[in-house]
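User: quick one
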Amino acid sequence: MIQYSKIAKVIEERIKNHIYPPFMKIPTQQQLADEFGTSRMTVKKAIDSLIYLGLLVSIRGSGTYVMSNPIANELDFSGKSYLGLSATMQGKGRNLSSKVIAFEHVFPDNLQQKRLLLNETDPVYRIIRLRCLDGEPYTLEYTHMPIGIIPGLNAEVLTHSIYSYIQNDLGLRIGSSYRVIRANIPDAYDRKYLECSDNDPVLEIEQVVYLDNGMPFEYSRSRHRYDKGGVSVNNQVTQMDKTFTWKKKDF
Amino acid sequence: MIQYSKIAKVIEERIKNHIYPPFMKIPTQQQLADEFGTSRMTVKKAIDSLIYLGLLVSIRGSGTYVMSNPIANELDFSGKSYLGLSATMQGKGRNLSSKVIAFEHVFPDNLQQKRLLLNETDPVYRIIRLRCLDGEPYTLEYTHMPIGIIPGLNAEVLTHSIYSYIQNDLGLRIGSSYRVIRANIPDAYDRKYLECSDNDPVLEIEQVVYLDNGMPFEYSRSRHRYDKGGVSVNNQVTQMDKTFTWKKKDF
DNA sequence: CAGTGGTCTAGACCACAAT
DNA sequence: TTGTGGTCTAGACCACTGA
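Assistant: Done. Structure below.
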């Protein structure tokens, strides 16, 4: 494993075990560099990754401190997650099952061509799955993926984890995603499969997911029951954002 | 301005002006280092910040490429934004107005004490504002802030931008935030102020915002009309996430 | 003032992609 | 094999905090 990742894991463990309790000032970068027998730059990279996760905060001239906890509850899933719903819920000890409602090979419409950078003659899978959490309807997913990029999808894979298949069987790596989160009115499918009443809102997540070479491989819309949790997002302001903010003295 | 930020701005301009068009391989880190008269590490930091923003993707052994565009539309606001709604909408050329519905000094309840790390005797502002976009109801904000951290708030500030006041008048800097995004059923206030019908869902954003020293200064719930856009989130998988994914061969 | 984190250098070695 | 990005070093200087 990469050196700064190893150091970050050790520090993360110390935070979780309260060896570094909330609000504690942790050792200086130089002290940690000495402890791990590495350079200060490498320690800083480890610390930066934990700042990104919201576990630490560094203050120049003062030190690095353990952050307090986020507001997310157990059912919310992270806006930073890419492992797919199966792995996310497995990590939380929940039982996720999938029922395939539609699975076919089609040609992409204009929107899908644009999102997935395809021609109208490039075939895609059209997949509709109902995901149930501990036996209760949780989310209805409408997924389109290019067959050329993700070959060999079948019903067996769909009832388990597409993301596991992509990463472990095809050996592809996921790089980034764009998501838009909205509230919406339930439609006939939501009422039928998510068992929404006419007034129950749905939480819709539209996303494009890219491989680590920048190629889009999934365009999907997921419609969630509103009472089954939300999406959590945590963000750190980068140095560039601070500089930008700094300049905005004019209004 | 910091050197890598300057370099990042130049590269960002080149992307926006299509000097580096979508999917183009940009010059190597070494070439850019020579061009800007700096070291490769500094160029890499600039590139990393643009990868974080979703503008570039680097592939080891191959090169760095301009990413294709996100799905966000103009009315969605970014999950990465901290400048407050006023600055966000000003940046988009929209006209935002604020109507103060409630403004008082109160003592925090249990939840607010926990989120803002306060005692029950530490006074907070309780603020309810209706934000209108181009004259139409947009979002209803319920905000609590510790008076001790943000002194001197008044009606004048509330009708303009609290964030501008915090940064420009108080000289404080915003560091990070945690958000949870949900769909919900409209309540009486939503129907009255957002002019929701009984069936219109609302998009609720609960957030805690921290100063750059890690101190929480805002706890708020914002309820948006569902037809006025959503929240966009873009994410890059970090090297650590990749390592984690890599190890998950077992399910 | 001393201590701390942020940035930067000028190299080096390695992993990986493309040929 | 060559070129590229990822990581790492051992120092340096600066900006900022806090005594």
